[in-house]
TrEMBL record:
<feature type="domain" description="PAC">
    <location>
        <begin position="225"/>
        <end position="277"/>
    </location>
</feature>
<dbReference type="InterPro" id="IPR001610">
    <property type="entry name" value="PAC"/>
</dbReference>
<keyword id="KW-0418">Kinase</keyword>
<keyword id="KW-0902">Two-component regulatory system</keyword>
<dbReference type="InterPro" id="IPR035965">
    <property type="entry name" value="PAS-like_dom_sf"/>
</dbReference>
<dbReference type="Pfam" id="PF00512">
    <property type="entry name" value="HisKA"/>
</dbReference>
<dbReference type="Pfam" id="PF08447">
    <property type="entry name" value="PAS_3"/>
</dbReference>
<dbReference type="Pfam" id="PF02518">
    <property type="entry name" value="HATPase_c"/>
</dbReference>
<dbReference type="InterPro" id="IPR000014">
    <property type="entry name" value="PAS"/>
</dbReference>
<dbReference type="InterPro" id="IPR052162">
    <property type="entry name" value="Sensor_kinase/Photoreceptor"/>
</dbReference>
<protein>
    <recommendedName>
        <fullName>histidine kinase</fullName>
        <ecNumber>2.7.13.3</ecNumber>
    </recommendedName>
</protein>
<dbReference type="InterPro" id="IPR003661">
    <property type="entry name" value="HisK_dim/P_dom"/>
</dbReference>
<dbReference type="InterPro" id="IPR003594">
    <property type="entry name" value="HATPase_dom"/>
</dbReference>
<feature type="domain" description="Histidine kinase">
    <location>
        <begin position="306"/>
        <end position="522"/>
    </location>
</feature>
<dbReference type="InterPro" id="IPR004358">
    <property type="entry name" value="Sig_transdc_His_kin-like_C"/>
</dbReference>
<dbReference type="InterPro" id="IPR036890">
    <property type="entry name" value="HATPase_C_sf"/>
</dbReference>
<dbReference type="InterPro" id="IPR036097">
    <property type="entry name" value="HisK_dim/P_sf"/>
</dbReference>
Amino acid sequence: MIQNQKTVLIVDDNYEDRQTYRRYLLQDKQYIYRILQAESATLGLELCKQGKPDAILLDFVLPDMNARAFIEQLQVEFNTNKGSKLPVVILTPQQDEALAGDDETYDYLIKEKIDAVCLRFAVHKLIEQTRLELELEISKQFIKTALSESEKRFRLFADNLDAIIWIASPDSSQHFYANKAYEKIWHRSCDSLISQPLSWLDAVHPEDYERVLVKLQQQENGQLTNIEFKIIRPDGSVRWIWDRGFPIRDETGALNYYVGIAEDITEQKLAHEQIRHLTETLEQQVMERTSQLQAANNELEAFAYTVSHDLRAPLRAMQGFAEALAEDYGKLLDEVGNEYISRIVNSAQRLENLIQDLLAYSRLSRTDLYLQPVNLNNVMFEVMTQLDGDLKAKNAQIAISAPLPTVSAHPNTLAQVIANLLSNAIKFVRVGEQPQVLIWAEITTPGWVRLWVKDNGIGIKAEHHQRIFRVFERLHGIERYPGTGIGLAIVRKGVERMGGRVGLESIKGQGSSFWIELKDDSR
Ligand code: ADP
């Protein structure tokens, strides 16, 4: 079929007239016409049955039927609604004009006045009308399908939601919609909510009622609302609800609707409550345990301090009398007797060292340490001076990679820590070997300084790396390497109390590298 071809049916018993109209139409440049002709209404109806024409030129008076009867039958044929127009233009002779003009449903052309232009104009109008009607029909159909599809999707979505979606008037006097979740949560029907818009309020817990009324007021004022409240279901069970409402305004800003979402948050509330309760209990327990531990610790430290202190008086007596014995009676005793005296003096000295270390360790736990910027170069100098006698006696070689940075520390504690590490480094070497110690610092993690003390000594098996930091843990006999077993415990406790960490790298027989890590304080 030609795209622009239109079918026009001319129903007229006058042959000349039909030919005239046909000629007018064939001269039309806008459309190409397929022209059907019928000399009677019956033939016209017959042709219409074969296919609906785009336009019908209908003679007002036909031999077998008048135009109105023809149109009525056509309406039945095309199943058109009463009142809807068919693409018909009625051609009426001058004398019937008044009669035809009564009916405004159809266009009329006065036969005697018809010329090519007005006929074509009338047909164009009909074609245009048909086209518009068709488009309108398609659009209507499309909107209908789209709407029903979107409604179906919305219902599918809304009815499967656990949360209630509600739509109400801002003054709460009407509820337009609530999904099925309302029934699941409130245990009341959606219909009851629609018919009695405030019936949901009946379930609100008396404790929360006032607050919910405030929410309704906010809603009426067009504010956003956000509220948690309890409801009591018909079976008496209590549920927690979290409800949020949003005002919907039209383009003029007028408040039209209020939409909201309400969720049952009972499970979360219970879990939250449980967690809060557990946290409280836990905090309470931690506080109790901490204070018990603190008390036990204080007692232990006080005990260690007192014992150490009290031990010193008899120890001093032992030392004093042993020395007096050696001085006053040494000559009267033989070699074995003098050997015994010297053993008493040595043992007393060891006990003295032990007590000193224990006191230092216990003091470290008991005193407050105020941290300040400490220049490691100065501390190293102090420690080297303090250990000078030992270093010389052992002919130790100490290499310091200066300058060293500044750290946040307690000066005396830091000096004690470094002195312990350095004295170990020169102590635990093979017999006859010159101790060689290397000291340097590096930034491992930003903000932290790691100070290394590396020796060429006997090294430590990996399995002992942790335990040597505990009190009285020693790996060697007292005769071979004298000591109390408290030095590294002081190192760890001291560094930890200054907020730092300790560690070592060592392989047995290959020297040890101890490190301490403290906050960088170089500004
Ligand atoms: P002490 O030095 O009084 O024995 P410490 O607590 O300082 O006690 O050290 C515990 C143990 O760790 C030492 O007895 C020794 O066995 C081992 N140790 C410590 N420093 C070194 C080191 N630099 N090289 C090898 N072993 C070490």
